[in-house]
Amino acid sequence: MKLKLASAVLGCALLAGAGVYVYQHNSKAGDFQGSSLPFSWQNANLYFVITDRFKNGDPSNDNSYGRPSKDSAGYTAGTFHGGDFKGLTSNLDYLRSLGINAIWVSSPVEQSHGWVGGGPMGMYQYYAYHGYYGLDFTSIDANLGTVEDFRTFVNEAHKRGIRVLIDVVMNHSGYATLKDMCDFKLGKTVHGEDPCKEWTPNVNMGESFHNKPIYEGLDSSWDRWWGKDWILFGGYGEPCGADDGLDKCLAYLPDFKNTNPNGKKVTIPTFLQEKWSKPNDKYDVKAAIPYRSGSMSVAQFQAHWLSSWVEEFGIDGYRCDTVKYVSKETWKLLKEYSVKALDKWRQKHKGKDPAAEWTDPFYMTGELWAFNTDPEDKSGYNKDAGFDSLIDFYFNPDGVNLNTCITPDQSDWEHYGKLYGRKEGKVALGNLTYISSHDTSLCRKKDMIKTAYNFVLLPGSVQIYYGDETSRVNDMGGGIDLEQGIRSDMNFPEDIDKQSTWASKVATLSTEYSKDPVLAMWQKVGQFRLRNIAVGAGFQEKLADNSYCRYYKDAAKGVDNAVVIHVGDTNSVQVGKCFTDGTVLQDVNSGKSVTVKDGKVDLEVKKIALLEIKR
Question: What does the pLDDT read at residue 4?
């Protein structure tokens, strides 16, 4: 159902003389300007980062579990590159300068220790640097840091008003690897090879890393691993191929038997029992310890393990992987446990972490491949599965490819404004729109300044993929794999040392941005969005050609917010339906202040004007 635009009369009645929530900076010790700005998930400006590929803050953890920085074939395409939570923490002001109010990090749980295969050509060793091959969901992966490193990251993000989401994988465990077979004394090799010895393919025999000598046929030697009650796996005499659907193996990945939350009760797998018999406070998630024993369904164990991260660290939400391969009932269970866990954390941490005072609800977004929009929740993913939004694939729907994205324009603003804009309240099922992702391509257009404002100003919530703002390149995984190149190392700007200065006035109006004009535009438009809920969540009304008013109210939070956006060169901007005569506005792009007279402001605009009440 399309939403109808309100009449001009109604717009004036709502906004004539309207005020705006003005952030008053509290300068108490440890506070950051902008940390208490009004927040709405509908206006999220979310930054997605693969932690391993962002910043190396602690080289001492780079080779955890014996993982090499360069594999035995001499490649780094699929290895861990050293990024960690200390590196992320050291660049939080950089993210804040982009107007980021939420960050999604790749799964922090302990991953398969060894390599799983060799990429499309089998040329190299492929490790779980991206977080999608979980081994122990109650421990942090040592390559990313310690429990205290992660706690510090979350707390420092919260101090800056940034919500933290972790990637959640409920559909599958990691593949079997030789290293895990060695470490946990499980499984069987093809010809009796020692899994603890380095194996390299015999190229003269036509072998590649895809031919790793692991026997996945029915054999009791696999019983020490997850076990047939936990997963679908060839080693338990069950078919596990590349089928699409519930209770089937996606890309040959061992599929958790979690479709029924109230299904068969299971006990802890042998390899985890033995691993957990030697606790390690450096990496163990303390809140998960009570769920390292007992008997319940697979889904219940998983939901307890994952929600324990919320209870322990105050995680604000999840990005959920492979949504359609897990039942809605199981997702709903995870949401239920996580809501309770966040409430428990907030009660415990009042006065210790600023996020304990936040009232916004626990948030879940998810990857439902090829999904676009469903604001009325006709699919039931909100009502039946607990999702607050789903990721919108419209602007970059393809598989791995080079620059196949579509960048938004003003017609998309009008379309998405009708779908997701509200005068107040929220939609039933939100969206999270991206132009680049780790599974499709990097969106790199000729005019990345235009791309920046057209995308970041899109109604609804948006997701920046790390390096969109700096035009990070696809390095082809070192020249051998296009897909790995989508996850290349972050390219920070030359003037990154000024990140704290860039972030110091995000609640008012920054006077200094990066010297890189493209990055500077991402910063300007992102900070504009950060200060103004109306940008993503507000009702949009077209004032004139290429000129738009957006406004939003939340009486409970004292928010009465309006902005005007004009695209294109001009000397005058119509604002009368958004702001009354005499109102002093500031243009974020130029940094100038102007006063409304006769329903307009006189302002020389080049490319774009971002008008808000002067702060």
Answer: 28
Which residues pair with residue 431 across a beta bridge? 390
Which amino acid type is present at position 555?
A
Return d(Cα 21, Cα 1) in angstroms, integer: 31
336 a catalytic residue? no
Give 120-154 pLDDT, tens digit per residue. 889 999 999 999 999 999 999 999 999 999 999 99
pTM of the complete model beyond 0.85: yes
Q: Letter for the amino acid at 218?
A: L
C-alpha distances (whole Å) from 200 to each of 69, 207, 208, 209, 258 are 16, 9, 8, 7, 36
* Residue 454 CB coordination number (10 Å): 21
Helices marked H in 328-388: 328-348
Q: What is the CATH number of domain 32-174+263-531?
A: 3.20.20.80
Identify the active-site residue in 367, 412, 468, 554.
Answer: 367
Closest alpha carbon to 327 in 319, 316, 335 = 335
Backbone angles phi, psi at 23, to 5 degrees: -70, 125
Domain positions in the chain are: 32-174+263-531
Q: Is 149 a catalytic residue?
A: no
Percent of the chain with pLDDT over 70: 95
Q: Which pLDDT score is estimated for 30?
A: 44
Annotated catalytic residue, options 156, 255, 311, 321: 321
In the chain, which stretches have pLDDT less than 50?
A: 1-30
